[in-house]
Amino acid sequence: MGVRVRAAVTLALATFFAASCGGVTDPSKNQVENIPGTLNPGATVCTSVTVNNGGEYSVKITALQPTPTAVLSVGWYQGANCTLLQDLRYAQLNQLALSGAILQKGAYSVSVGDPGTLTVTQTFTVQVSHP
User: Fold this and answer.
1) What is the pLDDT of residues 31-74, one digit of tens each?
2) Distance between CA 5 and CA 129 in Å, rounded?
3) Cis (ω within 30 of 0) for the bond into 27?
4) Distance CA 97, CA 100 (A)
5) What Cα–Cα distance (Å) separates residue 17 from each residue in 24, 64, 131?
6) Is this structure's pTM higher than 0.90?
7) Contacts for 110 with CB less than 8 Å, ≥ 6 apart
8) 58 Cβ contact partners less than 8 Å away, ≥ 6 residues apart
């Protein structure tokens, strides 16, 4: 098999697999979900997100009351019920909390939790951008 034939076969297979997996979405075309919630001291809230393609995701807290300076934990999971932890970070209002690559489409979830510092219930909105 010549080099050109191998290259053509490799390109055809790569195209097939990319198309069958839903391809990769340009981040500028991501779906943006604003997820509101209420977080009690000592608790964690988990919300599912459906990802339709590979690409990049990002998570940030865009609203937090009555304590906008509070630090929360934010997690990204594979699975609809915060099943398989991918990343967990501390987050503050209007700062990028998490970002990364999504290699396969499917069910994911995001969590917002009290890292042990809240003394009153907080209302929040977490913004998730995903393919």
Assistant:
1) 999 999 999 999 999 999 999 999 999 999 999 999 999 999 99
2) 40
3) no
4) 11
5) 11, 42, 17
6) no
7) 35, 46, 47, 49, 59, 74, 75, 76, 77, 126, 128
8) 96, 98, 99, 128, 129
Neighbours of 9 (CB within 10 A): 11
Class of domain 24-130: mainly beta
First and final C-alpha spacing in the chain:
38
Tokens, residue 4? 């050109």
What is the tally of helices (H) and strands (E) in the chain? Answer: 1, 8
Q: How long a stretch of residues is the chain?
A: 131
Rounded Cα–Cα distance for residues 90 and 98 (Å): 9
